[in-house]
Write a structure and sequence with these properties.
The chain is mainly β and 259 residues long. The protein is 10% helix and 44% strand. The protein folds into two domains: 54 residues, no CATH class; 194 residues, Jelly Rolls (Sandwich).
Length: 259
C-alpha cells in the first residue's frame, strides 16, 4: 500500500464515531460488543480498526431472567436438561423439547448458545402449538413439536457437502404451521435464509435476539438482524428449547412480554 493511500486510510479511521458506551445503552437493553476488525497496513507495520455493533442484552426494564422455574418437561429424559442459575445444559438425547409453563404472544427473547461438538443441531421453538405439545407429552417418545423454529446449527453440520435447503447461520422456518419467510428464501420456499453469515462454530458462544410481534418473527445473530417471517399462524403459544442429538449449552435467557 502506498504512503498516500495509507494516510487516507488513517484519516478515515480517525473520523469514525466513538462507540456507544454500555452505560448509555443499558436503559434500552442494548450493549456494545466487538463485531469484527479491519486491518490497514504497509510494509513493516499494521494498524487495526475495531468495528463495533450493538446488541440487545436483555437488561432493560421489563426483561425477566428465565430459569428452571419457567420450564417443564415434555418428552425429554429426566437427565436431558440440567439447570444451574443462568445456565441450561442439554445432553442432546433423546430428540425432544422442554417448554415454558406459560404461553406467549408478543415478546422479545435474548439468549446465548454454544454447541460442544461439530455438526451440533438444536433450535428454539416460538409459538409452539399446545396440541402438538400435548401429543408429545402423552406419547412420551422422541419427537419435535409444531411451531416456528429458529435454527441453532453448528457450522460443520452437513460438511463437506451440505444440502442447499438449509444454512448454519440462523434459518427461521415453520414446522407444521404457517409462515411467510423473509427473503432470501430456501429453494423449497419454506425457510428464511440469513442475509449474513454471522454465527460461530462449536466451542464458541453465539448471541440470539428474537422478536415476535403480531405474527411476525425476526432474528438477530450476534448483533445483526438476519432472518425471519411474517403472517405466522398461530401467533401465540409455548416457547421450547430443543434437544436434537448433540450436547449444547444455553445461558442468559431473558424475556420481555410486549403488548
Amino acid at each position: 500500500m502506498t504512503q498516500t493511500v495509507l494516510r487516507q486510510a488513517k484519516g478515515i479511521m480517525k473520523k469514525q464515531p466513538n462507540p456507544i458506551s454500555r452505560r448509555a445503552l443499558l436503559g434500552t437493553g442494548v450493549a456494545a460488543v466487538v463485531g469484527s476488525s479491519t486491518s490497514f497496513g504497509s510494509t513493516g507495520s499494521q494498524e487495526a480498526a475495531t468495528v463495533k455493533r450493538a446488541f440487545v442484552d436483555g437488561l432493560a426494564d421489563g426483561f425477566e431472567a428465565m430459569g428452571q422455574e419457567h420450564f417443564t418437561k415434555v418428552n425429554s429424559a429426566d437427565d436431558t436438561w440440567t439447570f444451574n442459575d443462568n445456565v441450561i445444559e442439554c445432553t442432546g438425547k433423546p430428540v425432544s423439547v422442554i417448554r415454558t409453563k406459560k404461553q406467549y404472544t408478543n415478546f422479545e427473547l435474548v439468549l446465548q448458545w454454544m454447541h460442544h461438538k461439530p455438526r451440533g443441531n438444536s433450535g428454539v421453538f416460538v409459538w409452539t402449538t399446545p396440541e402438538s405439545i400435548e401429543r408429545l407429552t402423552k406419547a412420551g417418545k422422541p419427537g419435535l413439536p409444531q411451531g416456528i423454529e429458529v435454527q441453532v446449527l453448528d457450522l460443520a453440520y452437513g460438511q463437506p457437502k451440505p444440502a442447499d435447503w438449509y444454512t448454519s447461520h440462523g434459518d427461521v422456518f415453520p414446522v407444521g404451521v404457517k409462515m411467510k419467510p423473509f427473503a432470501p428464501v430456501a429453494p423449497n420456499g419454506k425457510r428464511s435464509f440469513p442475509t449474513k453469515e454471522l454465527s460461530l462454530g462449536h466451542g464458541k458462544w453465539n448471541h440470539y435476539y428474537i422478536r415476535a410481534i403480531n405474527g411476525e418473527v425476526r432474528l438477530w445473530v450476534n448483533g445483526e438482524e438476519v432472518s425471519g417471517g411474517t403472517n405466522c399462524e398461530p401467533k401465540s403459544g409455548f416457547l421450547c428449547l430443543e434437544s436434537e442429538g448433540s450436547p449444547i449449552t444455553f445461558r442468559d435467557l431473558r424475556i420481555r412480554e410486549l403488548p
